[in-house]
Amino acid sequence: MNKNEHFWENLFENVLHILQQIIAFTASFLNRFLSLFFGSGNERIIRAYTPKVTAINERESAMQALSDTELKECTHRFRQRLDAGETLDDLLVDAFAAARESGRRNLKMRHYDVQLTGGMILHGGTIAEMVTGEGKTLVATLAAYLNALAGKGVHVITVNDYLARRDSEWMGPLFIGLGLEVGAIQSSVDSDGRQGVRRKHYQCDITYGTNNEFGFDFLRDNMKPLKSMQVQRELNYAIIDEVDNILIDEARTPLIISGPAFDDTSKYYKADRVARQLKREQHFEMKEKEHTCHMTDEGVRYAEELAGVESFYTAGNMEWPHMIDNSLKAHHLYKLDVNYVVQQGEVVIVDEFTGRLMPGRHWSDGLHQAVEAKEGVRIKEESQTLATVTLQNYFKLYAKLSGMTGTAMSEAGEFLKIYNLNVVSVPTHRPLQRQILPDVIYKTEKAKYDAICKEIEEMHKWDRLTLKKKNDKTKEVGEPLFGTVVREQDAAFEFIPQNSKKRMTIDHTSIERIERRERPILVGTVSIEKSERLSRMLTRRGVKHEVLNAKFHEREAEIVAQAGRKGAVTIATNMAGRGTDIILGGNPEFIAWDELQNKYESRLDVPKEEWDSRVAEISKQENMEEEGKDVQERGGLHIIGTERHEARRIDLQLRGRAGRQGDQGSARFFLSMEDDLMRIFAGEWVKKMLNRLGMADDEAIESRMVSNRIQTAQKKVEERNFEARKSLLEYDEVMDEQRKRVYQYRQTILDGANCKPFVVEMIENQIQVHLNGQDAESARRGLTGEIGFLDPHYGTHTFSAWIGQLMGVEIEGRELREMDFEQAEEHVRSQAVQDAQNQIEDQIEENLPDDPEIDQREWNWAAVAKWANVRWSISTTDRGLKKVGREQLAEWLGEQADAAIRKVDLSEGKGYLEDDWGKKTTCSWVKHKFGQELLVTELDGLDNDEIVERVRQIANTSYSRREREFPVAVAMERFFPEQNQGQRYDRDALIAWANQRFDAKLTPDRLRNQPRESIRNILLELSDQFYRNDEMRQMLEEQFHQVFGESESGEVESLTISDATQNSVTELVTWAQRELKMEVSAEEALTWDRTEVRKRLETALDARYRPEMCEMERVLLLQVLDGAWKDHLYGMDHLRQGIGLRGYAQIDPKVEYKREGMKEFARMWTRVADQVTGLVFRMEQADSGFVGSLWTISEAVHEEATAPTQAMNEQTEAAMKPADGQPKVETIRNRGERVGRNDPCPCGSGKKYKRCCLRQAG
Question: If residue 310 lies in a helix (H) or strand (E), which one and from where to where?
Fold first, then answer.
C-alpha cells in the first residue's frame, strides 16, 4: 500500500470517528433537552406513583389512632376484601399505610415517601435501584406484606445466611404486629433430619432465606417419594435482595445435588505422590494467569516411570495426566488459608471475592479431591449429579419476581432480555454529598500499592493543610502540609509538620482547606490475596487496621459494620459485607447482639425493652453519636478502590459504601497499567509509550477523561460477558425444559392423581412401538420409526442384526430381502470374507507399516497376533507371524479367516427368515409382557390393525385381572407369607381384612385346615365378586353428567357445582356415600368446582375398589421415573463434556447438544414405559420406602462461577479431557471369556495381563 492510500485510509477513519462523535453528542443533547421539558423516562415513572404516596400519607393519622389489636385486625379485613373480589392493587394504599404504622411502632422506623415508592416498584414486579443506605430491607416489607395477604407465601431472598436471619429478626416485629408469621431458612437446619422445621418456616406468610437454600429445597422436594415429605409451597412471589449478584453474577452457576458414584479414591493419593516429585519448568509448566499446570513431554515420561505405567495414552491409563495436572494445581496454585481452609478434616473453599467460607461447595473436575490428597484429609467419594438447576431457571419458576440493589441500571438490558424485568431508579431521601474523585493511574502495580499505603498513612496519622497560593515561602505554591494540629485558636493554628518537632503558627486566612486525621477508610480489593498484600505493607508502616480474610470470616459483618468508626482502617474485598450498614461513629446494634446472642436464640426472642436499652447504653458508652458527628466533620468515610472491576456496578457498589443517607463521604480508585482491566483497555503498548515519554513509576496520571474511557471499556466487557453468559445458559435451557416436564409429571403423581391412565397410556405406546415400530404420537406427526414386529421385513432385519453380533459383519436388512436361507447364508459368508480381508490389510498397515523411515524393530507383531486370535479364534503368536513374514501375512491370515468363517454355524438363524417370524415374535412378546398365551394360529387371517387390537384386548384383560389379584397377593404376603420362618399364620387378621376389604362374610370355619393355595383361591373368588371398578366408573360418569351437563361434543361443560340444583347435588352425594363409602355432605360439596368434584369422586372410587393397586402404580411410576431421570442426568453430564468436539466437524455444539439431548430424553421415556409395563404385571408388594432409597445424597453444592471471559475456553478444554470426578460411561458389549492371568492383556500393550492391567487394578 503506497503513501497516498495510507493517507486516504487514515482520513476516512478520522472522518468516520468524528461523525460518530457528532451523532453521539447530538443524541445526548436531544435527550437532555427533551428531559428538561418532559423529564426522563425514569422520572415519569416515579411521578406516576406520587398520587398513591399522597393517599398513603393521608391515611397516616387514622392508622396512628388504631390500637395494637385494631392494627393487627387490619390483615383480617384486607383478606376479607380479597375474598370479596378486590385485587392486591386495590388494597395497596391501605396495606402500605398499615405496614408503615407497624414499622413506626415496632421498629421505630417510619417509611419515607421514597421508600413507599420503592415498595410499589417491587410490588409491580420490577427491580428497584436504591442507593446504598436508603433502607432496602425496610422497603421490602411493604411489598412482602401486601403480597402475603393472598395467602400463597412470599420469599425474600438474600445472599447469605447471616442476612437472612438478620433481616427476618430485624423486620419480624413489623409483620408480627400485623398478625403475620415470619420464617427463616438456614443452611444449618438439615433438610432431611429436620424437614418438619423447614416445612414450618415455609408455611409462614413471609420466609427469608438464601438463593442457595431455596434452590436446593426445590430440587430436594422433587426427589421426595411422598408429598408429605416436601417442604416448599408453590413458588408465588420472590423479592431478591442484591438482585444483580444473584440474577447476573451467579445466574449461570448451577445448584447441584449429587450422590456417590462408588469410584476408587486412592488414585488421588497416588497422583499426589507423583506430583510432589515433579520439578517446575523441567517437568511441568505453570501459568498463573490462566491458572493452569501442564506436564511437559519430559514430565510425562518421568511421571509414567513414577506411576509404574508403560504409557499414559493407552486404555485404562488416560486419566493419569489430568489427575496429575490437578495435583500440580493443588500444590502450586491453591494455597491454604487463602483459597481454602481445613476445618474438622475437610477442605472448605474460601470465596475469592468476599472471603467467606463456603462449606458444601467443591471444585469440580477432580480438583477438590486433588486438594484433599495434598492436605492428607479423607477424600470424598466422587459423585454423580442427581438433580441440578441454574439460579436463572429456578427464579423463572416464580409467578412474580422483583428485586432491589444499589446498582442495577448498568445491567438493565440483561434483566429485561432474560427475566423481562424493568429497572427503576428510586431517588434518595436526602441529597447525596459523596465526592467522587478522579482515578489515579500508575505505570506499575508496585507504584500503585505504594501510593495507596501513602494515602492511607497520611489520612490516618496526619492532619492535612492545603495552603492558598503564594502564602508559604518554605513550600511550593499550593502544596499541602502534613503534620499534627496541636491547637486551634481564633485566628491561627499551631502546627507540627511531619518528621519535625518544631511548631509553627499558620493563620486561618492562609489556609485553603484543612483535612483532619483519623478519618475512617475502607479499602476495597479484588481478592483476599491482594488484601493480605496490602495488610502487610500497612503493618510495616505502623498503620493499625482490620483485614477481612478467611481467618476472620465469622466477623465479616462486624468488621464491615464498624468501618465508620473514627480512625478505622478496614481492608476487605469489594463484595464483602454486602447488606451491612456502615454508620459513621459505629453501629451499636452489632455490639449489642454480639453480647446477647449467648443468652437468646434469635433477636426476635430479645425483649424489646432490653434490646433498646442495651443499644442505647452501648452507644452512650462508646460515645458513638458524638463520634459520628466528629467523623462527619472530618469528611465522612473515605473509600479506596485498588482496582477497577470489569463490571461497573461492582465499582459503584464500593463507592456506595460512602455518603449513605446524605452523609459526607468520598471515593477514589487507584489503578495501574498492569491491572487486568487496564490491560484490556490499554494494552502493553500504552505502558511502553509511557516509558518512552520518561514517565516515572511513582508518577500518576489523574484525568476524568481517562476515567470516562475506562467506563467505556467496562461497557464493552459487560457486553461481551453478557453474550458469554447467554451462550452458556443456552445449554441449560435444554435440561430446563426436560426438568420441567419430569418434575411436573412427578408432582402430578404426588398430588394424588389417578395413575392408572398413565400406566394404560404406557401400555398402549409399548404395543404400538413393538408391533408397528412407533407410538401413536410419532405416527400422527409422520415421523419415521423402527422396524416393528408386524413389518413384513422384520425377519430379515432381525437376521442381519444377529449376523452382525455373531460375526461382526455389517449387513443391511434390505440386502437380504427376497432371499431364502441358503442364498442369505452364502451372501453373508462372502461379505464376511471380503470384510476380513479389508480388516487384515488395515491391521498390517497400522502395526507393520511399510515405511522406510520406520525401524522394523518398532513393528507391533504382538498386536496383530492378539487381534487375529480375538477376531477369528485362532491360536497364533507374534513369533509365528514373524515366520510367515510381512509379504505373505495377508494371504495367510486371509486363509485362516476364511476357514474360521466357514466353520460358523448359521442354521440357528434360519427361523428369522420364515414368513411368520414377526407373528411368532409378537406372541412371545405378549407372553413375556402380559403373562398370557397367544397362539400364532389366532393371528392367521388378521391384518396388522386387527392384530394390534387383539393384543390391546389381551393387555386390558390382563390388567383387569391384575387389579383383582394384586390385593390378594398383598394380603397373602402380609398374613400368610410363603417364607414365614416358623411363625404362625394370622388367619384371624386375614379374615378381618377380607371381610372389610370385600364386604364379605368369611368365617374361620371356611379357612380351617385349608392349605395356602386354597386360601388364596378363596380370596381371589371374593375379589372377583367384589370388583366393580369398571361398572362403577361408568356410573360415576353418568352421575357426574347429571349434575354438570354434557355438551354436544361430549365434553363436560365448565360449570361449578354451585350452579347445579340442590336436588342434583343431594343425589350425587347420596350415591357417593352409598356406593363409594365417601364421607361428604351436600353443603361441603357445594363449595367445590367441577375439577375438584371429579378428583374427589375418582379418589373415592379408587380407595373403594383398588387401593393397593393405586399405591403400587404410584410407587412404581416414581421409582422407575426417578431411576431413569438419574441415569439421564448422568448421561447428559458426559454429553455436555464431549459436545465441544463436534465443532471440529463444522457443527454448532449447542444445536447438536439440543438435538442429542432431546433424543436421549425421548429414549428415557421409552425406557420408563418399558420398565413400568414390564413390572406392573409382576410386582407383589407396594412399598414406598424403596423409592427414597434411590436418592442417596452425599452433598449439595453451588458450583463456583468462573469469569465469563474464561468460561468458553474452559468449556472447550473440558470437552477435550476425560471427566474426572464422574463415573465412566461404559458401552454395553457382549462379554467373552474371563481373561486369564497369563493371557495377553486386553488393552493391547502386548504384555501379559498379570503384568499390565491386573497389576494396576490391584
Answer: none
Pair 804, 992: CB distance under 8 Å:
no
Question: By three-state DSSP, how is residue 166 classified?
Answer: helix
Please provide the DSSP assignment of 339-393 as one string: TEEEETTEEEEEPTTT--EETT---TTTHHHHHHHHHTPPPPPPEEEEEEEEHHH
**C-alpha to C-alpha distance for 929 and 962, rounded to whole angstroms:** 13
Q: Which run of H or E residues covers position 849? A: none
pLDDT at 486 over 60: yes
Give the model's pLDDT for residue 1228.
24
CB atoms within 10 A of CB 31: 11
Nearest to 672 by CA among 443, 451, 452: 443
Number of Cβ atoms within 10 Å of the Cβ of 59: 16
The single-letter DSSP state of residue 309 is -
Could you count the other beta carbons within 10 Å of the beta carbon of residue 616? 13
pLDDT at 389: 85
pLDDT at 1146 over 60: yes
Sign for the pseudo-dihedral over CA of 873, 876, 882, 883: negative
Q: Give me the half-sphere count of Cα atoms (radius 13 Å) on the Cβ side of residue 427.
A: 15
Rounded distance between C-alpha atoms, residue 1112 and residue 424, angstroms = 53
How long, in residues, is the chain? 1258
- DSSP assigned state of 1220: T
| pLDDT of 32 | 56
Q: 3-class DSSP state for residue 1154?
A: helix
Strand partners, 240: 157, 403
Q: What nine digits make up the cell of 1123?
A: 431411576
Q: Which three cell numbers stand for residue 663?
A: 452523609
Burial of 956: CB neighbours in 10 Å, binned 0-12, 13-18, 19+: middle
Q: How does 95-112 read in b/e, with b if 16+ C-beta sit within 10 Å? A: bbbbbbbbbbbbbebebb
- In 3D space, the residue among 523, 309, 68 whose CA is nearest the CA of residue 1243 turns out to be 309
| DSSP designation for 417 | I
Distance between CA atoms of residues 375 and 13, nearest Å: 58
The residues, ordered by sequence, that sit 6+ positions from 668 with a Cβ below 8 Å of its Cβ are 437, 438, 439, 440, 638, 639, 640, 641
User: Does the structure show a pLDDT above 50 at 1081?
Assistant: yes
User: How far is the C-alpha of 487 from the C-alpha of 466, rounded, in Å?
Assistant: 17
pTM beyond 0.85: the answer is: no
From 611, 776, 575, 588, select the one nearest 163 (Cα to Cα): 575
Burial, 78: exposed, middle or buried (Cβ in 10 Å; 0-12, 13-18, 19+)? buried
Task: Please give the average per-residue pLDDT across 298-310, as a whole number.
Answer: 85
Spatial distance between the Cα atoms of 1252 and 1238, rounded to a whole number of angstroms: 10
Residue-wise pLDDT for 994-1016, tens only, equals 898 888 888 888 888 888 889 88
Separation of alpha carbons 804 and 996, rounded Å: 59
SS3 1034: helix
Choose the weakest-confidence range: 562-576, 740-754, 974-988: 974-988
Using 50, 70 and 90 to split pLDDT, how confident is the model at 20?
low
Instruction: Please give the distance of CA 1153 from its chain centroid, rounded to a whole number.
Output: 18
| CA–CA dist 144, 178 (Å, integer) | 12
Q: Which pLDDT does position 169 carry in this prediction?
A: 87
Average pLDDT, the chain: 79
Instruction: Please report the beta strands in 224-280, taking only residues with DSSP state E, as ranges in sequence order.
Output: 237-241, 254-260
Label residues 651-672 b or e (16+ Cβ within 10 Å = b): bbbbbbbbbbbebbbbbbbbbb
Which residue type occupies 933? E
Higher per-residue pLDDT: 989 or 694: 989
Cβ atoms of residues 345 and 378 within 8 Å: yes
Residue corresponding to grid cell 465469622: 554
